[in-house]
Amino acid sequence: HMLSVVLYLWKITKWFFYVVKRLGDAGLEHTVEVLPGGTRVWINKEHRFGTDALLLLSFCQVQPRWAACDLGAGCGILLLGLVDKGLRGPAAGVELAPAGVALLAGAAAENGLANVEAVIGDVKAYRPGRQYDIVIANPPYFSAGPPPPGPQPAAARHDHTATLAEFCRGSATV
Q1: Which own/partner contact pairs does 108-116 have at CB distance under 8 Å and 24+ positions apart?
Q2: Is there a smaller number of Cβ atoms within 10 Å at the N or the C end of the chain?
Q3: What φ, ψ does residue 31 adopt, rounded to 5°?
Q4: In angstroms, what CA-CA distances link 78 with 33, 143, 146?
């Protein structure tokens, strides 16, 4: 199975494409990364993804009609990765940071994904009006130690805004 993970990561790396753009009047600078299936993901200095997100995606399988929810979506890499793997059902990315939500919304619009909804919300309080077939998250995984510089990288890696237990409780309600 490790070989398939390595091949998947190689394929993604091969297809990454970077373009700096501006998002309308909001002035949200971002870079575009293109996944193997052609799905475009918007990132910036504060909202990006690492190898851990790509490894998590490599283990996820979806059915086209499933409904999906990404808790703590950030720029939406996990949700957009599921779309890249064939998800066509309703999809919601829940993120606390407005800039992350804007990146996901912009990427969804650019990709023509009417099924993807970018939601400003806290994973501890999110209560959707529907059930999901798959809930995915890459929660903060450090509870101690020095956080990386900057508020968004610190929130993404340290559990100051939501702990792993809170992510688990949140996923049980969607």
Answers
A1: 108/76, 108/80, 110/32, 110/40, 110/42, 111/39, 111/40, 111/80, 111/83, 113/83, 115/83, 115/88, 115/89, 115/90, 115/91, 116/76, 116/79, 116/80, 116/83, 116/91, 116/92
A2: N
A3: -120, 150
A4: 13, 22, 26
Q: Answer yes or no: pTM beyond 0.70.
A: yes
Contact 75, 99 (CB under 8 A): no
Per-residue pLDDT of the chain (174 residues), as tens digits, is 556 655 555 554 444 333 233 344 345 788 999 999 999 999 998 888 888 899 999 999 999 999 999 999 999 999 999 999 999 999 999 998 899 999 999 999 999 999 999 999 888 887 888 899 999 988 765 555 566 556 555 454 445 566 667 766 666 666
- Under DSSP, the state recorded for 142 is B
- Residues 125 and 30: their CA atoms lie apart, in Å, by 29
